[in-house]
Amino acid sequence: MRYQKPKGTLDILPGESQKWQYVENVAQQIFSKYQYQEIRTPIFEQYEVFARSSGDTSDIVSKEMYDFEDKGGRRLALRPEGTAGVVRSYVENKLFGPEHNNPYKVWYHGPMFRYERPQSGRQRQFHQIGVEALGSDAPEMDVETISMALNFLNELGLKDYKVVLNTLGDVQTRKNYHQALLDYLTPLKEQLSADSQIRLMKNPLRILDSKEAQDQKLVADAPSILDYLTDAAKKHFQVVTNLLDQIGVAYEIDANMVRGLDYYNHTIFEIMVTSPAFDNREMTVIAGGRYNGLVAQLGGPDISGVGFGLGLERLMLLLEQANNNLPEFLGPDIYLVDVNDADSAAVSKLLTQLRQAGISAERDYLHKKVKGQFKQANRLHAKFTLTIGDEELATKKAQLKRMADGSEFTVDLTDLSGILQQIKKG
RNA sequence: GCGGUAUUGGUGAAGUUGGUUAACACACCGGUUUGUGGCACCGGCAUACAUGAGUUCGAGUCUCAUAUACCGCCCCA
């Protein structure tokens, strides 16, 4: 039997994992400047948490969710996205209460699961970093969210992106527009693609997003949601765009941009990039928006939220392409060579002392000969080697060799700080 | 869920109309150097061609099924 990882999953091996740590560290740094703190919620939740929040007819719920029954007969699901779990936690822990700071700002990172066909940058287990700000319906909060996303990308050295913006308005807007769209499209039903004919019943907004040429032609003359905004919704969006203008964030408005999840309203945005990593096709790396009403939907008070999520697999492809100086794993500062097994205990003892003194140190564990140990030290990119044998142990003097140029220094084995000093000099 | 392409050692791969020991290179290990790396030379390294069936005297080479990867659709991060 030959085992292989499940379809659509990835081993993130050493070498690769450094990049992930780097990105997560940058996220942590940037987000904390905006006073976001990390939250860790379960990887699985009650099925209903996702079904209720995302919408029963959404693709995620209807065909992409990993749902299962546990041994106690509970219906659970692996999280397909991060927001629902965070909101559930916010409600369950009553984080809206007066003793907590609101807006309550959290970020998270971790694996998400969707049962779909894997492709480049798309996995069944994939990873997202996301942020949520709960408890403010101020448009300023939308803008902060967008600018934080951009700040994050900038810090990673990614520059070639554009911000695409739209508004889905409030409940009344949605209702009015929904009807207007139906009025327009229903007579044209026969001209729509087969997929879009189904969408017409389930979620007509999605037709706006169709890639079928025949649909796009019809959509071009469809009513725009921007003409159906209520006064309040219009005002909210205006403040958002004004603020973006004032802080110098360029954006495009795409009135046809929609969302696969039902819980969004008001401002939605995507940050898109065009990169050789995706064959120079436009690709969304960050998507977010406002979801007033979701907290209430999951049993909490009528509290607003806004956030975004980004796919780490896609981000990694971009970073590789951008070829920014990503961190590499460094070899040991010193590699201890033991000449024969009898000296092994002394070597291990010194090794421990060196590590306790705060430097990275390594030795041989394969009983290699001296030559082999030097090869190994070279391969690990060790900065120094220290050779220890009977003679050295007897005289307490040993040769510290700088691997870069081969120069050697005699050091006193009883003088740990002297050795450390020499190593720190490089 | 639908369609297309692919799958040979640790890696990159060659494998002719199905017919002896699965080429070559890199990496790795060992030796030349009985205590010192990066170079050179020598040697070693796939009972095995994704898995399972089938056709055949004989299959890495043909057929079918399954798995996985990649690409497109759907959808999305």
TrEMBL record:
Q: From the Swiss-Prot or TrEMBL record, state where the protein is found.
A: Cytoplasm
EC number(s) reported in the record: 6.1.1.21
InterPro entries attached here?
Answer: aa-tRNA-synth_II (IPR006195), aa-tRNA-synth_II/BPL/LPL (IPR045864), Anticodon-bd (IPR004154), Anticodon-bd_dom_sf (IPR036621), His-tRNA-ligase (IPR015807), HisRS-like_core (IPR041715), HisRS/HisZ (IPR004516), HisRS_anticodon (IPR033656)
Signal peptide region: none
The protein's GO terms of the molecular function aspect are: histidine-tRNA ligase activity
Q: Which family does it belong to?
A: Belongs to the class-II aminoacyl-tRNA synthetase family.
Q: What is this protein called?
A: Histidine--tRNA ligase
* Taxonomic source organism: Bombilactobacillus thymidiniphilus
Q: Which gene encodes it?
A: hisS
